[in-house]
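Lab meeting minutes (informal)
Scribe: AK
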Amino acid sequence: MALDFTQRFSATPRGARLARRLAQAQLDLWGVPYGCPLSDDVALVVAELAANAVLHGRVPGRDFEVRLAYDRRRTVRVMVSDTCGDRVPPDGPAPAVPWVAEGGRGLAVVRALARDWGVSPRVPGKTVWASVVAPGPADPVARASG
């Protein structure tokens, strides 16, 4: 049985920060404690995808949506939807970004932390999703205390 959480946020930097914090709070309610690798990895993926939704997928007056699905087999599927379908993340390897650049590494972080990721069309807009799997033992609590 998968657990599911869906919330809409304002397409602002504050909305993106709130999305990350609420994702971790929801995982904690589901038994994935703050500070364990799965919680930290999901928080980073939500932060990057939410920031991209605000920066690249923002349509004035429209919110973005975050959905989490946790199957209790150590996998969290993160889905971030925005209403701008004409700006889709690039597929393939991440482009080289100079270390002094202020941005451009978000999808590289998602690629590094997620088992897989992709983009699905929706009306209106798109959903960028990533599947994050807990490293190590099946019990995320064991990793946090171990």
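Next up, CB showed the second protein from the same session:
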Amino acid sequence: MSLTIQEHARARLITEGPDPRLVPVELRWDPQEPKTVRVRLPGGVEWSFGLDLLERGLRSPATRGDIRIWPCGRAQLVLELHAREGVAVFQFDNAPLIRFLSRTRARTAERPPAAPATAGSA
């Protein structure tokens, strides 16, 4: 059984054109990196950032490096990614993001805390 959590979502790619384009997006969490979310975009492009940034971005604007996240109304979130090639802006419905975060919280709550390191005596 894989301990990795994946959530498939559709996001609106915001462009200069009149209509946003719906694109498939995959959110992924791996217990080996419990504080990180990976977002796979069309074309195999993957961004990773702190899970806490996604959580904060659901409530209020949050920025870390080249990533900006902010709520858009009561039911949506905007993810803005800055790269050398330009800026990509995606608009998500909150439901799959909240479901993903709930699943990751549940999984981290299941994990026993790491045993503290003790110094050996000679």
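CB comment: Strands lie at 5-14, 21-29, 36-40, 46-50, 62-64, 67-72, 76-83, 86-93.
No objections, moving on.
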